[in-house]
Structure prediction request, 620 residues.
Amino acid sequence: MKLAERVRTGDRLALARLLTLIENNSPEGQDTLSELHALTGRAHRIGVTGAPGTGKSALVNRLTQHLRAQDDPPFVAIVAVDPTSPFTGGAILGDRIRMRDLSGDPGIFIRSMANRGALGGLAGTTSGVVDALDAAGFQWILIETVGTGQAEVDIAGAAHTVLVLGAPGMGDAVQTLKAGVLEISDILVVNKSDLPGAESAARALRAALELGPVDSEWMTPILLTSADNGDGIPELAAKISTHMEHLKKTGGREERDHARVVGEMERLLQQRLTDRFKAAQSDGDYERAIERVVDRELSPMRAIDELFQD
Amino acid sequence: MKLAERVRTGDRLALARLLTLIENNSPEGQDTLSELHALTGRAHRIGVTGAPGTGKSALVNRLTQHLRAQDDPPFVAIVAVDPTSPFTGGAILGDRIRMRDLSGDPGIFIRSMANRGALGGLAGTTSGVVDALDAAGFQWILIETVGTGQAEVDIAGAAHTVLVLGAPGMGDAVQTLKAGVLEISDILVVNKSDLPGAESAARALRAALELGPVDSEWMTPILLTSADNGDGIPELAAKISTHMEHLKKTGGREERDHARVVGEMERLLQQRLTDRFKAAQSDGDYERAIERVVDRELSPMRAIDELFQD
Prediction:
């Protein structure tokens, strides 16, 4: 049977193989993704982000267990995107705990991505991986990533619903969240609510939110959860579902899907154009232009101008 | 007098105007940068990064004051790159404190960049701004940015010496620093050393560093500083100078300059190629391709394939 067919019919080994092909940017992976593309668009894509130490992995695990314990449970995929190098081992440790908590349930599929992959960095690869999981029938896809900065902007582009996590005792909660994450959050979560200071962290976040622009259609809720003891997890799952319904009603889902495709096309286009341009250059022209900039003969912009003059 | 000439001879108003032109990606800005390009390459570019709340701005201010109080003080420029939206106002607050501490000294020039600019996002614009400051004769250029993630990778690409800041009481110091920042740091700084826990944070960082790959040429030092009371600032300035000398001796400076130019050329090339491609498309072809992906007729990769077939 063809790989696409095997993925479609729930063969988990075939799915794992497809994800590896996508990560390696192999033609077979692209062919298969292309065959499966018509099956995408059914999953709810949920981004989970926040500073290191806020308990993202633990929360994702708890939420997954909660979803799977429901009547008629959804299929849940977890994509853990970790731009961390193997240096400090955070990803590996998180994965071990995750496997202990979640393994053995065929309705859960977990994929960790710690490598930048060949195609447009982590963002490009993640997109294909999530599409494949969507086509394979996972109804909830949780995309977890660390940090502030580009990774978070990327996750906002990849998800329908974005959860941003904070935790008490991480210094000033508002400070740690300041780098543009309040804007991308659909649901704010103060995790580790069993620790002291959770309520005041939630109040500080509420105050910060009230300073921002008001979206009359969706008031970003602030939930308290404890991945440790499970407090607030059912409420979080319900709130995500509410946001899903809200997006469907308001056309926000189509809007986000459209923006995601625009972003991905842009990435692929840049990659393709750059590859073609370099292949078409006479031997070493581009490298020589770089050397001339390094030697301060030309500014970078003028060097590019010259490359396009012939 | 021409703008380039005015910048070269120390006219601060002309410099401010050039930076605005660069931020707006105006042709005059590019022409002027090009004329000034031969004068670049003299500054030492120092990146300062770390999680929100570690006191980056305060440390940069203190360090600048220390440098300016030396005999034969260097000209110092500060570029504060803040990917934060105006939402929480962190950038604005930091700027006010900065102006209070540093204004009135003609040997200091401060530029805040909170907008993504036209050209390849913040990274593209920062590069031109720093080049202009370099050409204008600033010997120390401190490039300050918040957060983990892409901003930090960018700063590592833009700087000769990268300072990564931590602070005690920010949760687990190693955790907050885990997302790839240990690898990019040339000097680790535990700021707010007047607070309890600074010594143990430094020990934890030392332990984390020892887990990593050993660079026999440069052992990343860990310094304790207090931007509040000035402790450790002279030692930090001295250590940066030591790193400068080290880079010059080992060829590391040329290596970093080369990598920086390669990165910038790549960004400009992508931008130029994408602009040209879109301009050359028949009306709406690219947009139609996007719609076909949204409608699940084609995978993104196949849509790009089709655009390149004609």
Observations:
- Chain A touches chain B through 76 residues (CB under 8 Å).
